[in-house]
From TrEMBL:
Protein name (database record): Histone acetyltransferase KAT5
Annotated Basic and acidic residues bias: 85-94
Catalysed transformations (reactions): (S)-lactoyl-CoA + L-lysyl-[protein] = N(6)-[(S)-lactoyl]-L-lysyl-[protein] + CoA + H(+); 2-hydroxyisobutanoyl-CoA + L-lysyl-[protein] = N(6)-(2-hydroxyisobutanoyl)-L-lysyl-[protein] + CoA + H(+); (2E)-butenoyl-CoA + L-lysyl-[protein] = N(6)-(2E)-butenoyl-L-lysyl-[protein] + CoA + H(+); L-lysyl-[histone] + acetyl-CoA = N(6)-acetyl-L-lysyl-[histone] + CoA + H(+)
Native species: Oncorhynchus tshawytscha (Chinook salmon)
Gene3D superfamilies linked to this entry: 2.30.30.140, 3.40.630.30, N-acetyl transferase-like (3.30.60.60), Winged helix-like DNA-binding domain superfamily/Winged helix DNA-binding domain (1.10.10.10)
Subcellular location field: Nucleus
Family, as annotated: Belongs to the MYST (SAS/MOZ) family.
Gene: LOC112231290
Gene Ontology BP annotations: cellular response to oxygen-containing compound; double-strand break repair via homologous recombination; positive regulation of DNA-templated transcription
Lineage: Eukaryota, Metazoa, Chordata, Craniata, Vertebrata
UniProt-annotated catalytic positions: 391 (proton donor/acceptor)
GO MF terms, alphabetically ordered: chromatin binding; histone H4K16 acetyltransferase activity; zinc ion binding
This protein's UniProt keywords: Acetylation, Acyltransferase, DNA damage, DNA repair, Metal-binding, Nucleus, Transcription, Transcription regulation, Transferase, Zinc, Zinc-finger
Region Disordered, residue ranges: 85-118, 157-208
Major location category of this protein: nucleus
Pfam families attached to this UniProt entry: MOZ_SAS, Tudor-knot, zf-MYST
């Protein structure tokens, strides 16, 4: 005898079995519950990068789509929205030409109309600053400065000769006067044009060609450095046996990594360092800078790079530190000189780089130390009699810090200009570059970013609005840590005459 089962029970039972049988695998995408900056729940789309089983349940390592990788994390199944699960798409099979035996034959190619077979010249995208350098600032043109904030000349066309903006060039976008706010990392800090082959020397170099599922995942849970515990943002190639530890212990003076607190305590009884190795070349108050040669202090330099890689995503670590100098900023107290941040630079740079990598450790961020590192790098360039620029690409936080520093430095010069004989003050791009040691391309890109350059009556002028001036004055009031050139004791070396560094 057949019994009737209510349809609602069948549906519920079917859904239960369906969800029990679905396995979330690597590559799947689905919404994942997380807290935003306002501590509110949100369900952004995320990709499953890895799955692991611990006693009693599974954990999923997720990357939130369109979010920075430092937000990647392990989550429990309860935070997954299984109703919107997307399985990874199968890769399209590519035809094999001249393949090995057993390979699939290539599909016949379609005939292409004769008109489409002509080779068209490819256009290489030109960064904004190159366009300005080539077309906006010819060598013979002097850039004038206009302080007429309220003049109708630049606000309306009552005189019949209203201001017209610089003609838009290919690859350029006109921007509104910025507030030096945050920008998305993926859209702003990568270099334009065709990516070059990775450079195989140096400590931390730009390279995205070795990304795989291993390097996309954080491998260190926590680092104890002195009195701070740091949560790494990205992968760093520490020895494999250390990646399973709940806490990785570092000596804050020599940066040696150890697997337990007892090992650290034993190490501290033997470690005589109370400051980074190398020469102290700057001290004012509690802030000091130490210059470290990557060849003479190779172990320290490599340990520094391993630590830095935990917080720098756009760099790949190589162990050849010989061609580099490291400048470590410290904060002094009765226990010693504690590392705050650092930057590295090549001993010989053919591209005028004065910074290769730059980092402020997370406990010291948002306290002005990042700009202090940047300012110090340009002070060294001034002593060397060179202009410099940071190696690209910059991280999102690095880009914001550099834009802010360039803006404040250039605006400070422009606002200090005095008119000559009743005429408008004038200055050239080259003069700004020589005064600040900021490379000419960075000066031009900053003026463009601030929307200061305008074309009027056959010449290029810089127009400062009230908003720009007020914003600059507010920023300068918050700047509590300027570099004092009198406290710098630095003698540049000619590394080209020193053979192998």
């Amino acid at each position: 005898m057949c019994r009737c089962v209510p349809s609602t029970f069948i549906n519920i039972h079917f859904q239960y079995i369906f969800f029990r049988q679905v396995d979330v695998i690597e590559g799947c995408r689905l919404p994942v519950l997380r807290k935003n900056q306002e501590n509110e729940d949100e369900w952004p789309l995320a990709e499953i990068l890895s799955v692991k089983e611990i006693p009693g349940r599974k954990l999923y390592y997720v990357h939130y789509i369109d979010f920075n990788k430092r937000l990647d994390e392990w989550v429990t199944p309860e935070r997954l929205d299984m109703k919107k699960l997307q399985f990874p798409k199968k890769e399209a099979k590519t035809p094999t030409k001249n393949g090995l035996p057993g390979s699939r034959p290539s599909s016949p190619e379609r005939e292409v109309p004769q008109a489409q077979q002509k080779c068209l010249p490819t256009k290489t995208s030109i960064p904004d600053f190159q366009v300005l350098q080539q077309q906006v600032q010819p060598p013979t043109i002097t850039v004038h400065l206009c302080f007429d904030f309220l003049s109708p000349l630049f606000k309306s066309s009552q005189n019949g000769t209203a201001r017209r903006p610089m003609p838009n060039q290919p690859g350029r976008k006109r921007k509104q006067p910025p507030n030096c706010g945050g920008t998305d990392e993926d859209s702003q800090d990568s270099s334009d044009g065709i990516p070059s082959a990775p450079r195989m020397t140096g400590s931390l170099v730009s390279d995205r060609s070795h990304d795989d599922i291993v390097t996309r995942m954080k491998n260190i849970d926590c680092i104890e450095l002195g009195r701070h515990r740091l949560k790494p943002w990205y992968f760093s190639p520490y020895p494999q046996e250390l990646t399973t530890l709940p806490i990785l212990y570092l000596c804050e003076f020599c940066l040696k990594y150890l697997k337990s607190l007892k090992c650290l305590q034993r190490h501290l009884t033997k470690c005589n360092l109370r400051h980074p190795p190398g020469n102290e070349i700057y001290r004012k108050g509690t802030i000091s800078f130490f210059e470290i040669d990557g060849r003479k202090n190779k172990t320290y330099s490599q340990n520094l790079c391993l630590l830095a890689k935990c917080f720098l995503d756009h760099k790949t670590l190589y162990y050849d530190t010989d061609p580099f100098l490291f400048y470590v900023m410290t904060e002094y107290d009765s226990k010693g000189f504690h590392i705050v941040g650092y930057f590295s630079k090549e001993k010989e740079s053919t591209e005028d780089y004065n910074v290769a990598c730059i980092l402020t450790l997370p406990p010291y961020q948002r306290r002005g130390y990042g700009k202090l590192l940047i300012e110090f790098s340009y002070e060294l360039s001034k002593v060397e009699g060179k202009t410099g620029t940071p190696e690209k690409p910059l991280s999102d936080l690095g880009l914001l810090s550099y834009r802010s520093y360039w803006s404040q430095t250039i605006l400070e010069i422009l606002m200090d200009l005095k008119p000559d004989n009743g005429e408008r003050p004038q200055i050239t791009i080259n003069e700004i570059s020589e005064i600040t040691s900021v490379k000419k391309e960075d000066v031009i890109s900053t003026l463009q970013y601030l929307n200061l350059i305008n074309y009027y009556k056959g010449q290029y002028i810089l127009t400062l609005s009230e908003d720009i001036v007020e914003g600059h004055e507010r920023a300068m009031q918050k700047r509590h840590l300027p570099i004092d050139p009198k406290c710098l004791h630095f003698t540049p070396k000619d590394w080209s005459k020193r053979g192998k560094w």
